[in-house]
Amino acid sequence: MQELTQLLKDKFGYETFRPGQQALIEKVLAQESALGIMPTGGGKSICYQLPALVIDGLTLVVSPLISLMKDQVDALNEMGIAATFINSSLTGNQINERLQQAARGEFKLVYVAPERFETYGFQQLLKQIPVGLIAVDEAHCISQWGHDFRPSYLKLAEVITHLPQQPAVIALTATATPQVAEDILHCLQIPAQNQIKTGFERKNLAFQVVKEPKDTYLLEYLRVNRGQSGIIYASTRKEVERLFALLQSKQIKVGKYHGGMNEQARSESQEAFLFDQIEVMVATNAFGMGINKSNVRFVIHAQIPGNIESYYQEAGRAGRDGLDSDAILLFAPHDLQIQQFFIDQSELDGAYKQKEYLKLREMSQYGHTQMCLQRYILRYFGEDCPDCGKCSNCLDEREVQDITLDAQKVLSCVKRMGERFGKSLITKVLTGSKDKKVTQWQFETLSTYGLLQSWTQSDVTQLIDFLTAEGYLNPEEGQYPILKISNLGIEVLKSQRKVMRKQAAVKTLVVDDALFERLRRLRSQLAQEQNLPPYLIFSDQTLHELAEKQPQTTLEFLQIKGVGENKLKKYGELFLAELKEA
Ligand code: ADP
């Protein structure tokens, strides 16, 4: 036990195990097969990576995605652990070479794709290589109940349950439904009592349902959180293309990913995201499985996904490093029709279709519920948790504000301008702009000119949008909608009515920190030199802790979360020097 914790610190740089990790590791080290069910970001990898260092023989990791393999192997090599992968991106010679090395015991871990188990050659080889542990990642792919069934996983199960040396098997998944779990236990012959399921709560995620105009919200969010890494999901390729063009036109470092792009374009786009060369990825759900990038600060769904399972999995790609992150659903009831269409068009049989419709309904209720959003999701999975205190529903009531005075400023400005203009000119007058149009109408002489001088234009526009949506202003249809004051608005001007606003203000995720930026630049530079994604060198969390604690000695440096012996050796001096200089 003590030794395991020591190993965790020395190799991975972490002080304590996360829920479930130790229990799973102990099972595996006792040579028992086990199933671990943990949320995305829960720390499944360590459950086989750490035993791999202790167990005699090779640990074979089955993983369905090539991109994930390379990433994981790079990460292990960074920690000084001998690992490699075998998949179709290699030539036959390379594969043989690596297999021979594996047979000679030169690797602790070898990652393989499930398809490999279908080849006779590999099956024969497996009988000769001393395999000590088999880890089956994304194990829900075994189950036809799962949302990602892969026939090759069935073959895999057959092969490994018939191996002569009978290595322990550790299956891992983030899919929580009991049916899927049962299938995995059954197929891989794992004793039911060795199923270890941790809570699915994601304490560092702030779930939000946003019903404001999408593009406006998105652009504002990205403006406020510029420089942060995030994913924007849309349901269709067309919408991905549209959003991509929109963001590109605003000089945002954006990439796109969907099934209509060729493989090379997709993998280039993905690499650019992993390497922090692009900040925002706009994608369909084709993107993400197997993306291990830990510093994703936000996942925004621009359109509603088809069910809560998919939503939670996709949203869960934010904040794997444990830092506060956002999971935002831009909710427009209209978007439900797209998902409905997908189900209509699918070739599922009747009963199955009905189930999908039901799942979609529960997803849409997520958009309407007043309950804590984290709690709503957990209850859907048959769990529960206390109110999270940070989702948009938990924060809702606390942020109701009396904005009567600001509303009066806007309304009286509209009145003094003669109720003949649209929101953009009204905004300019209120913020005291010297725009030509303002002077042309001599609006700078109005008593309401510059009344909201300290506000940004976009905040004022949002306030006007709010007053319009709530019926204090009436837009008169036409090419350039003119705003007039409604009867409600008149009551406000006469102080006969109060205006309350639930602030859905866009928050900044991370406060600017010059030292953090310095460290980040150093990390980028090192990443570039070695052609590694930056987060594999140190996570954002590690950089934040470095900036906060500012270690001066190697011993202090080693205390930082995410710093193990190998990384200390490789990078310690450079970062210590940077900290001293700062
Ligand atoms: P999963 O596969 O469950 O989605 P990962 O294995 O990729 O999650 O782990 C998510 C992140 O959490 C990684 O950055 C990993 O290094 C980190 N992590 C794992 N275990 C611990 C731990 N015990 N303490 C701190 N961080 C951890």
Structure description:
By secondary structure, the protein is an alpha/beta fold. The chain has four domains: 2-197, P-loop containing nucleotide triphosphate hydrolases (Rossmann fold); 205-380, Rossmann fold (3-Layer(aba) Sandwich); 399-503, Arc Repressor Mutant, subunit A; 513-581, DNA polymerase, domain 1 (Orthogonal Bundle). Helices cover 46% and strands 13% of the residues. The chain has 26 helices and 17 strands. α11 (263-274) links the parallel β10 (254-257) and β11. The longest helix is centred in the middle third of the chain and has 19 residues, at 350-368. It starts with a helix and ends with a helix. Adenosine-5'-diphosphate binds next to loops. Adenosine-5'-diphosphate (ADP) is lined by residues 14, 17-18, 21, 38, 40-46, 292, 294, 320-321, 539.
Bound molecules: adenosine-5'-diphosphate
Shape: globular
Radius of gyration: 27 Å
Count of the domains: 4
Strand line-up across the major sheet? 3-4-2-5-6-1-7
> Total strand count, please?
17
Mean pLDDT metric:
90
Structural class determined from secondary elements:
alpha/beta
Cα distance, first to last residue?
40 Å
**What's the architecture of the largest domain in CATH terms?**
3-Layer(aba) Sandwich
Strand content: 5-15%
Q: If helices are DSSP runs of H or I spanning 4 or more residues, what is the number of helices? A: 26
Features:
582 residues; alpha/beta; Rossmann fold; Arc Repressor Mutant, subunit A; 4 domains; seven-stranded parallel sheet; six-stranded parallel sheet; 26 helices; 13% strand; binds adenosine-5'-diphosphate
